[in-house]
Amino acid sequence: MDEKTVLLPKQGGQVVPLRRTAPLRVDVAGGGPVGLAFACTVKSLLGDRVSVRVHDRRWMRRGNRVVWRGVAEGNNRREQVVTLQSNVWAALPVAVQQRLFVPGRFSEMWPLGPDSPESKGRPRNIKIRWIEDALLDMAQDVYGIEVIPEAYTKPDRWDGLHVLAIADGARSATRDSLKDQFGTPSRELFSVDGSPLDERVLGIRVTAKVPDEHTVPLTVAQNRFLFNSLGGGFINMRLTAEEASEIVALGESGPVSCIGKFGCTMRPSGTRFVCDRHRAVFKPSVDKLSYLWPRILDGLRFFGVGAADVVGITSFTLGMQQMSKFTAQLAPSTFGFLLGDAANSLHFWPGRGLNTGLKSALSLAVNLQKRWRGSAFRAADFAQHEGIMQQLQYREKSRAWTTMLMPDSEGVPRGIEDRIREGLQGPFDRAALVQTLFERVLEIKKRLGGRMGSLATDEWYYGRINALDARSLKVMVESGPWITREIGGEEVVVPSAEPVAAPEPVRRGLSLVS
Prior knowledge:
Blueprint: E1 3-9, E2 15-21, E3 24-29, H1 33-46, E4 50-55, E5 59-62, E6 65-68, E7 81-84, H2 86-89, H3 94-100, E8 106-107, E9 124-127, H4 128-141, E10 146-148, E11 163-166, H5 173-177, H6 179-182, E12 191-192, E13 195-196, E14 199-207, H7 216-220, E15 225-228, E16 232-238, H8 241-244, E17 249-251, E18 254-256, E19 266-269, E20 272-275, E21 281-282, H9 292-302, E22 310-318, E23 327-331, E24 334-338, H10 353-371, H11 383-404, E25 405-407, E26 413-415, H12 416-423, H13 430-448, H14 458-466, H15 470-479, H16 484-487
Parallel strand pairs: 3-4, 3-11, 4-10, 11-24
Antiparallel strand pairs: 1-2, 5-6, 7-9, 8-9, 12-13, 14-16, 14-22, 15-16, 17-18, 17-21, 19-20, 23-24, 25-26
C-alpha cells in the first residue's frame, strides 16, 4: 500500500481517519560522487516524503560512523581534480553547495563558457576525494540517509521499493545483473576498423608552484598533456601503445600486475616510485634506458613542475560504449535508473564526466520530486528524464569522440595516438617548433583574457616552451590545440527543482566538520 491510515480522536469521542502518504522508497547502488549527490539531492527535495539507502563496498564501519576504506583496507582512493561547470554546481541544493565549496577546497582556473555563464559564475575545480568525504558525512549528519558499507545485491523480490538508482561505475555489477532490463552496452559506435578505440593515460599527481590559471593556455594549446590544478592536482598524459608498454611495476621476482591492472598509485620513495600495496617499483623511474621517463619530465617542466613535486603516478584506460536506454521497469511498482558512469562513461579530456553524472542525478531527483504523489509510478512519468539522458549521451559522447578522433586540416578524423607517434619522429626544427607553439599560446591567451583572471607574462610562457626537448615540442604541435569550436555549442539543460528550505542537521551529537 502507498498510503497509511492513522486514526485521530475527535471531540465527542468520534474517530476520523487521516490519510498519510507513505514515503517514496529509494535504493542507491554506489556511493561515489554521483550516487551520494543524488541521495542528498532527492532527500533535500522530498524531505520526509522519501526514504533513502545507499550501498557501497568501499565503505566500512568505524564506531557509529560509516567511513571510506583506505589503502590499508585495500581501497585506493581517487585523488583526481575535476572541473564542475557553474550550470551544474549552481543547480545542487544550497546545503550541498555550502558543504562542498568551502575556502581552500576549490579553485576557479577555467574561463566562462556556454555551460558556465557569467550569471552563474566560473567553473570550479574540486577533488573527487573531497566530494566523496563531504557528501558521505552530509548524508549521515544532515539528511539521516541510511548508508550501508556493502555492495548492492539485487533482491529476490522488489517488495515495496519504488526506485533503484544505479551509480556504481562504468563496470557496474548492478547494471550487469539487470542486463535483461537495460540491455548490453555496445562499443560498436566507438570503434575504428571494427576495433573499439581505447586510450591509455598516465595520471601524474603533483604539487604546483605557479597560480592555477597560468597553466590554462599551456593546456589548451596542445592535446598531449592536461593539467587540472587545485594548488597541485593532476597532469594527465596521453600515451602511444609503445609508451604504454613501459607502464610496468617491478617486484623482487619480476613484473607485478599493479599499476596497469589494479590502478595502483606509485608514490615517491627516495629516487623511485613505489606502490603502497604491492611494494613494486615503477619501472620507467629506475630504467636509465626508458624512452617514456624523459617525456614525463618534459610534461612536468612544461607546467613549471619538477620531479620532486610529483606525489603519485597512476594509469588508466579510457573508452566509451553506447547504452540503449537508461530507465527500466524492474517490477510493477519498481523502476531502475542508470546514473553517472554506469549510464555514460566518457573520455575525460573535454572535462564532462562528473558534470554529466551530476546532471543525470539532478534530472532524476527533480523528476521524482515532481511526479511522486504516493501512488505507483508509470513508465510515462519518466519520459522527460529518459529524454534528457539520451540527450546527454548524444551530446557528451559526440564531444568526447571528436577529441579522440580530431579532424585534421582537411577535416579527416585522425587519432591522437597517430598524432603523438608522428610527433616523436624526426626531423626536428626546434626553433620553428618553439615559435609555432609560442604563437599558439599567445593567441589562446588573448582569446581567453576577458573570460578569466590574470594570466602570466608572455616571457613566462616562452620560458616554459623553450625549456622542452624537440620531440616533446613536435608532439605538442602535432597534437593540435583544443578544438573548442568543434566541441562547443549548446549544452543540455536539466529542469530546475522547486525551491526548498535548507535542512536542519540530524541531531546525533556528532561534529559536522569533515
